[in-house]
Amino acid sequence: MTKRCDVSIRGVEISFGAVRVLEKLDLEVAQSEFLVLLGPSGCGKSTLLNAIAGLIDVQAGKVWIGGRNVTWEEPKDRDIAMVFQSYALYPRMTVRGNMSFGLKVAGMPSAEIEKRVAAAAAMLKITELLDRRPAELSGGQRQRVAIGRALVRDAGVYLFDEPLSNLDAQLRAELRVEIKRLHHRLAATMIYVTHDQIEALTLADRIAVMKDRVIQQLGTPNEIYRTPANRFVASFVGSPA
Ligand code: ADP
Ligand code: MG
């Protein structure tokens, strides 16, 4: 894995009908950074992530990935890989099939696919599960497969939308450590959406706290926690009074 793209969001605006969800939003994510989008449910985190992925069109503003203006490019041309909360695995394919599928569709030679799947599976400790189907896996194992499927893409940016929200506390803690380890190991650019303060504070290089259509504060976990910009940020991250 060698590509590490920066991401630049400039003046992005998105509404659904009459409801404005993002307002003139700016955000710069550095190469190899772990950036967490943190905020309460409904504040627009997924909307922003989907706009970066190209799954939603912006009504104003621009999205740059790796120095390229991708605002009007299809998701497949954006050099991103995404992990969803709901795993979104293909139920009839094995783990190996799930991890290989996108690469096969892209026409990659099977030797290269095998190499990538083996490497990602080893990193995520799911090598023994490669011949199983999703129904034969626990929630934590499924989410490892979903992360593995993103890793094999060798993307410039990895996007995570609340990947641990469906898991119990024990597994969440375990996978948090795993994701942190992956980030260190790959030095990949990662943008990670969560409403969980602990996840944000433990994973992030920087946190963007979102509410009311805008980013309320952008800073390191220490800055956000120690010097919250306003009362909302303070109460949301549980800063000492
Ligand atoms: P979050 O991920 O932070 O929970 P979302 O980005 O999913 O928030 O949603 C932000 C707001 O936009 C919410 O009020 C949500 O109801 C609304 N919304 C999201 N997607 C759509 C859509 N496709 N159509 C209409 N409203 C939407
Ligand atoms: Mg969401």
From TrEMBL:
Molecular function terms, GO-annotated: ABC-type transporter activity; ATP binding; ATP hydrolysis activity
Keyword match Transmembrane: no
Membrane topology value: Peripheral membrane protein
Compartments (UniProt record): Cell inner membrane
One Gene Ontology biological process: carbohydrate transport
Domain ABC transporter: 7-237
Superkingdom classification of source: Bacteria
Keyword Nucleotide-binding: yes
GO cellular component, one term: ATP-binding cassette (ABC) transporter complex, substrate-binding subunit-containing
Sorted UniProt keywords: ATP-binding, Nucleotide-binding, Transport
Family listed: Belongs to the ABC transporter superfamily.
Protein name: ABC transporter ATP-binding protein
Source species: Alsobacter metallidurans
Lineage of producing organism: Bacteria, Pseudomonadati, Pseudomonadota, Alphaproteobacteria, Hyphomicrobiales
Residues of the full protein shown: 1 to 241 of 358
